Amino acid sequence: MSSSIQLKQLAERSRSVANTVAKHDLPLIERNLEQIEKQSRKLADKVVKPGEVHERKAPYFLANIGIDGDKLTQDVKSISVLGAFEPRTILLDTDVERYLDHKHQQTITSIIKDGYTQTDNEYNALFDCCLSSEWDKTKRKVFEEFGQHITMRSTELPTSGGSVFRSQFSPSASLSSSFRASTSKPSYITSGERRISFKNESTLQLNQRHLVYFDVIVKLNNARLAKIEYGIINEFHNAARKISLDYGRKVVQCWRALASIVKESNVFDGSFKRNPLKQRQFAPAYQGPAFNTAYKSLSFDLINGAKHYLEESYREWSTAYVNSFRNEAMLGGQPSAINMARAVLRAIHRSNGGIPTTGLRMVDNIPIWGHIFILVRQGYYKEALDVAKGYESLLPRQDIHFVRYFERFITNNNKLPSQDRQKLVAEMKQWNPLTFQDKDPYKFIMYQIVAQLEELPQKPPVESFLTTSEDFMWMRLICVREIEPIVGAPNDTLSLDSLQKTVRNLGPSHFNHGGKDTIQYFRALLLTAQFERAVHYLYQTTFTEDAVHFAIALAYYGLLRIPDKGEAMALLVEVGDRMIPYLNFNTLICQYARSLAKGNAPSNAFQYLLLLYLHGDPLTEAGRYQIELCHEYIRQLIYDTEAFNELGKMKEYMPLMFIDNEGEFTETIINTLARQCVEDGKFKAARSLYELTQNFEEIISLLNKMLAEYIWISIRGVVMQPETAKELDPQEISRILKEYEHIGIRKISPNRLKDSRTLLNLVDFVESYKQQDFVRAVTIIQQIDLFPFEDDIIVIQQKASSIEAFDDQLKNCIPELLHITMRCIYAYYQQLKDNMAKGTPGLLRKYTDESATLQRKARALVTFAGYLKHSVLSSDIYHKLHELDVQMR
């Protein structure tokens, strides 16, 4: 019973809810019959009675501004809005089906709105990205045109993404399908990437530095072609020696330094007599992961090479210095290393103008600590140890263990074992700074060398004995114990990484003697193995040509890091927290080649572009990109300089370009370049390129395109520039075709030649039309047999089908040709009507027959146009043909 009562209560509550929902929100308006009649009469008075004309002020007002009010009224009345909106009805809470339908519609509307918002946001983001990218590329182009570059910091290695700029060798969309050859090889250069221009308007003549370095570049490429190791640094050194004045001497010293750093020796006329260095020998270690085992080993080798150069330079200085003070030096007749060191000390501490010997420990008027130091500074480590052992008994008690430390330093490859170093440093920290003025500075220097400390404890005065930048660099290099800072290592341990930062922090002003010798800082960067920064710095000075060739030498041995894709805007890119430098070698070489690409020097520029292939590698994506980019640069060089006669010489260097055979060279360089010339309207240049490969089929296709281009321009009435008119000369094209037909080249397709003759006849047809010789024009177009002029459906269908088989060049001209053909027929027809109106009795029948014939031809053309596909003939042209046909009836 209780259950049935509960159900009844639930039913009553449901009915009450439904009745509540069904009530109207608005109150009912109750009117009596009199009020209703009064409101009805007011509404009736506003209605226009049949036959009455309501006031028309609005149409006159709208007519003043060119709006047809009546027509707008009719358009509005024709619109049916019955299904546009649904009347709003109250949705009952108990109507589940309509509720779900309503939610479904709301969901769809929300999805559409969200999709619109997302699409709008994505479009704006893409637009901003493209705008920013285009601006970056524009800045890069400006920088390259003016030879200026900026340094860029990045957290990731930069690559060249797709650019908004159209590449010189990215075919346009309208012509790419017709003239770009298909290839199975993937393209690693995205369409639209910017390329450098080799057009050079400068009148600057090649200077001596260009010439002396260029000879070495040619020999280098020939050696690479013969797969022979080439001592490039020594050859650049010899070339720099030919440059006169103080300029040459400074550069020569840098080349000597680099040769010592990489240990390029035993070279005569570019050939190694022994221990040859191979191309890209250091690349795996130098360009591999930073601070791995191979990189550390290479870095120590580079440091040792830098020390060797500074020691060799000091030996030369010592000899010159002793010769300057022969009497004071007293070298004698046995100029051994030990005796030479004594002579140097006598000259340095001479009584008349030398450094006083106060505080120095002397034996036979020779500072014993200075004797050891001079031998070490000259690189005679074994002799220095022998001298130290000879002086061991003369050393004071507190220095009695020095010789033992020094011996372990020499025998352990100039690096004291860690335990011994800790003991030695602990002893040095016990020194009393109050007695420094009585101590020997040479002693402090030797202790600093053996302990390999960047700075001595308590900092005793030694600056007066290390006065030159070479001494500064040598002292720092010999004290380097690690390549990178090691966590947990003592703070006094000097690493190459920290030394490099020190040199950078000191900057050019510290090394360049107040700007008087700008190349000293470059040499300091070289000696600390900062090759990318060294080249970047030198490139911004007056030594631009030398910077380029230092970069070439470093790249040849693999000692230059470049971005994976060399399209970064900055010349120098510093990546990551360690600020690892990457040099844009591509930009550097292309800028230099651009300066050579003038007059008779395109071949010189080509020799430099071949060097870009040093970083090519068909086994890696970055290497394949580099190869294709180099191909692009070479094509651009030929394109800008039109040095087509150089292609034969360039072909000799195919192996350096990673091109296997002549066929690949023809397709990769010549044909691709020819297609680009076609797209840019350089038809004669394209024909010259195709003739080099005897590709007569493409030449005929090219000539057909030139004729079609001429026809299109003539029909449109475009005024041609002199250069365009010179390119599109129908008489010259006709002469070439006749020449090819005369020699009977079998490689040419008969259909191609047929198209050529058709196009030449069409040129005559268009010229007759322009001269308003309509009778001759109609005669020519009938002889060409391009369009049907008889009302035969079968013939018309055949002609329409044949249009689809035409080349694109001819097919693109069909709409305009069809239109002017109809206009010629119509003009001819009007001439006949005029003649008939003059009433010449004997010719009246002839004019009548000819008029009827022209009418049939016009109808045939309209029928023919109807059978053409919309892709060939637009509806606009069809309507124009139809209107002319109607006017002739």
UniProtKB/TrEMBL annotation:
The keyword Transport applies. Belongs to the nucleoporin interacting component (NIC) family. The keyword Nucleotidyltransferase does not apply. One of its GO terms (cellular component) is nuclear pore. PANTHER family: NUCLEAR PORE COMPLEX PROTEIN NUP93, NUCLEAR PORE COMPLEX PROTEIN NUP93 NUCLEOPORIN NUP93 DEAD EYE PROTEIN. Keywords: Membrane, mRNA transport, Nuclear pore complex, Nucleus, Protein transport, Translocation, Transport. It comes from the Eukaryota. One of its GO terms (molecular function) is structural constituent of nuclear pore. GO terms for biological process: poly(A)+ mRNA export from nucleus; protein import into nucleus. It is found in: Nucleus envelope; Nucleus, Nuclear pore complex. The lineage of its organism: Eukaryota, Fungi, Fungi incertae sedis, Mucoromycota, Glomeromycotina. This is Nuclear pore protein. It comes from Gigaspora margarita.
